[in-house]
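Summary for the steering committee. The consortium agreed at its last meeting that each partner would contribute one worked example illustrating the joint modelling workflow. Our contribution is presented below. We chose a case with several input lines so that the handling of multiple components could be demonstrated. No manual editing was applied between input and output; the record is shown as generated.
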Amino acid sequence: MGDMATLVAALNATWFGAGLPPETQTRLAALARQEETPAGTVLLTEGEVTEEFGILLSGRIALRTLVPERGMVTILTIEPGDIWGWSAIVPPFRSTSTVVAIEPVVSLVFEGASLRIALREDCKLASLLYPRMLQAVSRRLAASRLQLLDLFARDATATL
Amino acid sequence: MLSSELARPDRTTTHGRWFLDRTRLDALIVALRADGRTVIGPTVSDGAIVYEEIRSAAELPAGVGDEQTPGRYRMTSRDDDRVFGYVVGPTSWKRWVFPPMIELNSGKRVGHRVEFTPARSTPERLAFIGVRGCELAALGVQDKVLDAGQFRDADYRARRRSVFIVAVQCTTAASTCFCTSMGTGPEVERGFDIALTELDGGFLLEVGSPDGAALVDGPLATSLRPASPVDVYTAAADVAATRARIGDPLPTAGLHDRLLAQLDHPRWAQVAERCITCGNCTLACPTCFCTSVTQKTDLEGHTATSERFWDSCFSPGFARVAGGSFRSRPRDRYRQWLTHKFGTWWDQFGTSGCVGCGRCITWCPVGIDVREELVAIAPPVSLTPEPQRVEPVAASFDDFVVAQVVATRQETIDTVTLTLSGADPAFSKGNLGQFAMVGLPGFPPLPISISRFTVDGIELTIRGAGPATKAMCALKIGDQLGLRGPLGNNWPLDRAVGRDLVIVAGGIGLAPLRPVIHALAADRRRYGDVRLYYGARTPADILYSEELARWHSRAGIEVHQTVDRAGPEWEGRVGVVTQLFDTASWEGANAVAFVCGPERMMQATSNTLAGRGVTPSRIFVTLERHMECGIGLCGHCQMGKYFVCRDGPVFSLAQLGDTFSREGI
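What follows is the complete predicted structure of the assembly.
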C-alpha cells in the first residue's frame, strides 16, 4: 500500500505527477495505492469497463488487441513513467485494448470511480490532470499514425 | 638408433611453435627452479594480482580477471580457468630488477680517516613468468636509462642480465590499456626467452632466444607437441582482437614537440587542483627511476649505512636546494612528470618513457587519466582525420568491375547480406555511408549501401523488394555481380569526436549505419555516449541481431530496440522508434545524430531530435532517390540543387532546409 509520503514521492518522480502543486499531489496520493503485479497478469480487458487508471513505476506492460486471423497482437508497450487505463476517465470508460503485465510490474493505481468523482468535484484538480492526460494520449496517437503507415512494409511501391 | 630417439622429433634445428598443455604448465616452473632460479609470477594477494615468488602453477590466478578504469581496480571471476586472463596489476617487474630499497655502502670514520665499503650484493637468478608486451618494453626502457649511458647502474645490470623471461601475449585488455598507441603491444616481438599465448586447454609456445631453445629441447621436450595450424591461427586472432579492442586511445604523432610547446597551458593548473601529489603513479609506473639516498648511523655516528630507495618527482622536497624548492607547486611537479615521461625522455634516452600499461590511470586515487590530459594540453594537429578521398572505380556509364559472392547470410525472410570479394581494392577503402551501383545483366543497376568494409571486400545487405533486388538475394556463393564505386559522401564521424552520438535506424536503414557502428566500436574512447535506436517492422524483421547484442554488451553502445507490432511471445518494446528517445533524459545540445530509414520516419525522428535540443547542422540523414548512373550524369536523382548520388546521399538538416520531405521535390 505505502504511506502518504512514499506515494507522493513516487508520484513526483513520474513526468505525469512532477510539477503538480503539493496540495494536488497530496490529493492524488490519497486516491492512490502502490501495487505490485506479477508478470502475466491481465490488468484490463479490451471492451470491458476500465476500473483502474495506473502510472507505471517499474516493469513493462503490453497493450494487445485481438485480430481473429492472427491472434493477440501487441500494438504498444508501456515503459516506466507512462500511463495505462486512461479510458477510466474518458467516456465511455471502456478499455481500448487488453493490458497485460509482461514483466513483474509496480504501478501507482487509482480506482476509476473515485478518480472520476474527484475530477468532477475538484475543478483545480481537473484543470491540472486533463492536460497531462491529453498529452499522454496525443503522444500515443502520433505514434499510432506512424505505425499505421507501415513504413517498413515490403513491396510497398517499390519497383526495384 | 634407440626407439626413444626415433619417437622424439628433432627440435634443435627448427624452433617453430609448440603447444604446451595446461596440465603441463608446472613443468615449466619446475624446470626453471631446477635451473637454480627464483620464479616470479602473478598471484593474488591483498585484493590484487601482484608479482611475487611462486613455486608451482597452482599459485597462478586461475579463473581470475580484472576490471580497470581511472581510479578503480577490481578482480573479477572469469567463467573459464585461464591463468593469464587479466592485464597488469599495481606492481611491475621493476621491483625485482630495480628494488625499492637496496643497501649501497657502509662508511666508517676512524679518527681522521674515512672508509667506504660498497655493499656488493649477489643477486638471485630470476625467472619472470607472465611478462606482457608493455612490460617487456618497460624493461627495454630501463635498460636504456640505467645500463646504456655513460654511467651505469651495476646493481641493475647484475640483476637484469640473469633474468629468464617467459612473456605472455595479451588476449584481454583493460579500458586503461594503450600499448597500441605507444607501439609496445599487445603483441610481444622481441626480448623474451619464451612467449606463451593462452588458448583453451593450454598455450601456444614460441622460442625467442638460445636459452629458451635449450629449455624447449631439454626439460620441456616431453611436455610439448608441435602446434597445429588452428592453435597458431587462434592465438594470432585472439591477440589481433585484443588490439582491435584497445584501438588507438592516444594519438602520439609529434607528441614530444606539441607537449613541450605547452608549458604555460592553463590545464596544468586545472589538473593540479585534482592531483594530490601522492606519487602513486610513479610508484606503479614500470619505468620511473627516481631515487633518493638515505643514511642510517649507529648511535655514535661513526658507522653509517647508505641506502637507496624509490622516490618520486612528486615528493614535495624532491627538487629542494638550500634556498628553496625548484618545483614547489603541485602543478609544477605534475608538469615535470608528464613532460618528462612523454617529452624530454625522448631527448634523454631516445625513447618514450611511457609504455601504455595504464597503471598510472588505474592507481591514481582521484582518477586522473594521462591520455585525457595529453589530448587536452597537446591536442593532435588533426584530431579528426579527414576521410581519405577514394577514387571510385568503373566510374563511367558503361563500366562495371566484377566481384564474387564468397558468403551469404539470410538476415530475415526477404533480406540477404552478401559478402563480396575480389573487387577492386578501392571498395575496402571506402568511407562509412558510401554506396555501390550494383549490376546484374538484364536488370537495372541499383544503388546499394555498403553495410560492412572487410580487408578484401565489402558486404551488401539487400532487401528483395523487386525483380532486380530479388535476383541479387538469390545469388549463391561463387556467383558474380558487377560493381561501380564506392560512390557518394560519408557519415561525418569526425564531427562526432568528443561528442555524444545518437544513431536512429528504421528497418533496412540499419545497413548503411552498420559501418559507422563498427568504426565507433573500434575506437570507442574518442566519442562520448553512443546510443543506437533501432525500429523494425516486427521481431522477424530485425537485422544483425547477434551483432546488436554484441554492440550492447561489449562495445559500450546503448542499444534500444522496438518493433511496430508483435505477437504475444515478444517481450521487448512495441511502438515507433521516436518513442525510444522522446522522453529520454539525455541532453541533445552536445550530440551529433545519424538517421537512416524511410523518409517519413526520418522526418519524425528529426523533429523529435530537434525537440530534444540537437542542432540541425548536427543531424545527418541519408536520402534515397532514383539513381541510374550513380555518377551525377543521368539526371534522375536531383533534389533541389543537389544530385543525391554526387552531393549526398548524406546531408545535414541544415543543408536541406525546407526541401527535406517537402511534397513533390
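The longest strand of chain A covers residues 71-78. Chain A is about 35% helix and 30% strand.
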